[in-house]
Amino acid sequence: MEWKDVLKRYLVFVLGLYFLSAGIVLIVRSTLGTTPISSVNYVLSLNTPLTLGTCTFIINMVLIAGQFWLVRGNRSRQDIVEILLQIPFSFIFSAFIDVNMALASDLHPSGYGSAMALLLIGCIVQSVGVVLELKPRVAMMSAEAFVKYASHRYSKEFGQFKVYFDVTLVTLAVLLSLAFRQSIEGVREGSLIAACLTGYIVTFLNQKIMTRKTLYKLVPALKG
């Protein structure tokens, strides 16, 4: 594969990160909670001087360190490269989150209906990001990679371990919120809706809208 094709694949991946970050920010701005993967980051950002992007980067670094621990004693050169590659992409993703938080700073839903609409738009935008992130097959973000290595380590199915992982994050976010403010913030009905809807939207986009054939026409490099 030529370097231009590789570059195009990475550009599509980075575009996916932008949409993913934008979707997360829209869900946060809906005031109905946030996604399970961002729940701990969001609670920390609410209770510390750190931005949501900065908290996201810190948690990603923890997950990257966790991956090195999971592959201990059986790590290959490919594993090391794959894990280290997450660092610059985590930085880019975290920066995108802070940029989009600033751009959406004046976005305040006027009622529950508009908040729910904003939540659903955020789920769609986030799902577009997930599809664009997965299609190039060049890298993984730290949360998904952590689940992959953990499922391999403990001989569990990826989807099953992903549920355990998400539930653990939400539980930790609730405990942190209670510890900081003696109330639950950042985890609401929107968190459950986003968790349930995103997978279905990703599947629909992947199979009906953003198919490989469609993306190949737009970015031929993805065909390789």
In words, what does this structure look like?
The protein is mainly alpha-helical and 224 residues long. It contains 10 helices and no strands. The N and C termini lie close together (7 Å). The chain has one domain. The mean pLDDT is 88. The protein is globular.
Please tag this protein with its features.
mainly alpha
* End-to-end separation: 7 Å
Kindly state the percentage of residues in helix: over 70%
Strand content: under 5%
Contiguous helical run count: 10
Quickly give the structural class. mainly alpha
Low-confidence region ranges: none
Average predicted local confidence, pLDDT? 88
User: What is the CA-based Rg, rounded?
Assistant: 18 Å
Tally of extended strands? 0
Q: What is the domain tally?
A: 1
H/E series, N to C?
A: HHHHHHHHHH
How is the biggest beta sheet arranged? none
- How does the overall form come out from the CA principal axes? globular
Summarize the structure.
The chain is mainly α and 224 residues long. It has helices at 3-29, 36-47, 52-70, 77-84, 86-103, 112-134, 142-153, 158-181, 189-209, 212-218.
Task: Give the helices and strands, then pairings.
Blueprint: H1 3-29, H2 36-47, H3 52-70, H4 77-84, H5 86-103, H6 112-134, H7 142-153, H8 158-181, H9 189-209, H10 212-218
Helix pairs in contact: 1-5, 1-6, 2-3, 2-8, 3-5, 3-7, 6-9, 7-8
